Amino acid sequence: MIEVKHLKKEFKIPVQKKGRFAAVRNLFSSEYTIKRAVDDISFCVGNGEIVGFIGKNGAGKSTTIKMLSGILKPSAGSVTVDGIRPFEQRMENARQIGVVFGQKTQLWWDVPLIESYRLLREIYRIDNITYQKNLERYIPMLGLEEVINKPVRQMSLGQRVKSDICAALLHDPKILFLDEPTIGVDVVSKKYLQDFISEVNREKGTTVLLTTHDMGDIEKLCSRVVVIDSGHLMYDGDLESMVQRFGAIRSLMVEFEESVEDFQVANAELVRSEGNRKWFSFHREKTTPMEILHFIVGRFPVHDIEVIEPDIEGIVRNLYESK
Amino acid sequence: MRNIWLYGQFLRVAVLGKAQYKADFFVGIASVLVLNAVNLSLIGILVYNFDTLGNWGIWDLMFLYSFWMLSRGIYGVFFWHLSDLEEMIVSGNFDAYLVRPASPFLQFIGKEISYTGVGDFLVGVLGFLLAAAQLKLKWQAGEWVYFVICVLSGALIQMAVNWIGASLCFWTTRSHAAMSIVERFIVLMQQYPANIFGKYFQIFVTCFLPVAFINYYPSVVLLNKAEGGTSFWQYLSPVVSLVLLFVGALVWTRGVKRYAGTGN
C-alpha cells in the first residue's frame, strides 16, 4: 500500500541575517546550510496494517508523513501510496488519504462541527449515502453527539481531535495518516480514539500509519513499528521482536519475610534494595527467573515475587541509545 | 464551474462563521464609517483652504474617494484575509490545504470574508450618489458599464497587489512589513489625484506599482479630467487588473511549489 524507497529530504536553511533591513537582505541572500531531515529511509506498509512510526522530536517522522501526504516534495528516492506518487499526483492522492495532525485542526473554527463536515462532503464529493452512513456510524463511536452543533473553538482538545479524526474518515480513505493524534489528550478520549482507530481498521480495512510518543497507542494498536532517529531507519519489524531484541533486560522483584543482607546471584545483578524487597535485573538469554529463585529460596524465606517485563518506552530508549 | 460552486460553499461557511459574532459585525461597520468620515473631512479641509487641487474640485475629489471606497469595499469583503497567509505558513496550517482534493488557492480565498469592506462599500455608494448629483453627471449606458467594470477592476488590482505581496512570504516567511508599507502607500495616494504628486510619482504609480489604475485613471476618464483629451492607456484599468492577476497567479503557483520544497 505504501512503498518508501531510499527516501531523502533536505532542507536549505537560510542563514538569518541580523541588523538593519534584515528582512530585505534575507530576501536576496543565497547563504544557507543544508539539513538532512530524512536520510535514506525505506519501508513498506501492507494493506490493512496499522504501523507505528516512532522517534524522538525532530527525528524526521513528520517530514516523512508530509512527503507521503503530498505536502512536501522528496529530495531523492521514491514514495508511492497505493501506486500514486503523492507529490506529483497531489489531487489523486488527496482523495485516497485522510490526514490528521494532532496539534492543529483542519476544521472550520467558528462554525458548528456539522458545517465543517458538510463542506468536506463537497470538497471530497462524498455521495450522500456514504456520507450519512459514515456520520451515523462514527459520531456515536466517538461520542460526538453533544458537540456536533458546537463550533470547534468551544471544544476541549479531546473533542477536537476526535472531530478531526472523524472528518478525515468521512470520504472512506484507503490510508489514514495520524501525526501524534493523542498528544495532550485525556485518558478517556485517548481510549475512545484507540478503540475507534482499531475498529475502523478492522471494519473497513483502512491502512493506518501513526506517529506517536504514547507507548500505550503503540501497544494497543500497532502490530508493527518503524523507528527512526535523526532521519535514519533504526528498526522495522513486529512489536514482539523489538521487545525480544531491545528489551532483553528483564527484572525480578523478590520480597523476603524479613530484611536480609545484600548478596550476589549468578548471571543477575542486584540493582535495588528497599526494606524487605530486592530487585535483580538479568538478560533474558543468560538466565531465567526460575534459576534465580531456585538459588534464593534455598537460602532465605521468600514472601512474594514479581517478574517485571521491560515497557516499550524503556525499549525505545534502549534503541535510541544503542546506536 | 465546479470551482465556482465550491467557492460558494466555502463562502457560505465563512458567512456562517462571521454570523457567530454579531456585536463585532456592527462595531466593525460603525468604526469603518467613522474612519471614512474623518478621512473625508480631512480632504474637505484641504479643499476648503485651497479651493481646488489642480483641476479637481471638492466633488471631483469626493467622486475619486468614493470610487476607491467602492472597489476597496469589494476587495475587502472577499480578499482582506490575504495577509493571513504569512501566519498560515509560519504555523503550518497551510498544510491542510495541500492534503485535500481542491485548489489550495480556492481553499485559502474561501476561508474567510470580512465585513469591514461592507462599511467601505456603503461609504462608496453614498459618496458616489452625492458626487454624481453635485457634478450633474449625465451618463449613457456605456459610461455606466465602464464605471462598473472599472470598480471591479479596481478591486481586482488591489487584490492582485496584495496577492503578490502575500505570496512573497513563500520565500521570506515574513512579508507583513512589506505589505503594510504598500497598504499605507495605497491608502495615502488613493485619496488624492495622482497628478498633484508630480511627474515621477505619477510614472511610478502608473508603470511600476500601477495603483493609479484603481481609481485615478477611471476617474480621469469618467470626469474628463485629462488635459488635451483622454489617452487610450488611461482606459486600461481592466487590462491592468488582468495582467496583475496573471502575475499574481504565477507568483502564487511558484510559491506553492517552493513551499513543497521547504515546508515551513
UniProtKB/TrEMBL annotation, chain A:
ATP-binding keyword on record: yes
Pfam families in the cross-refs: ABC_tran
Source organism, top-level taxon: Bacteria
Domain ABC transporter: 22-255
Molecular function GO terms recorded: ATP binding; ATP hydrolysis activity
Keyword annotations from UniProtKB, A to Z: ATP-binding, Nucleotide-binding, Transport
Keyword match DNA damage: no
PANTHER family in alphabetical order: ABC TRANSPORTER ATP-BINDING PROTEIN (PTHR42711), ABC-TRANSPORT PROTEIN, ATP-BINDING COMPONENT (PTHR42711:SF1)
Name assigned to this protein: ATP-binding cassette domain-containing protein
Origin species: Parablautia intestinalis
Lineage, uppermost ranks: Bacteria, Bacillati, Bacillota, Clostridia, Lachnospirales
From TrEMBL, chain B:
A Pfam match: ABC2_membrane_6
Keywords (A to Z) from UniProt: Membrane, Transmembrane, Transmembrane helix
Chain segments annotated as transmembrane: 25-50, 62-82, 113-132, 144-164, 200-220, 232-252
InterPro entries for this protein: ABC-2_transporter-like
Transmembrane found in the keyword field: yes
Name the record gives this protein: ABC transporter permease
Native organism: Parablautia intestinalis
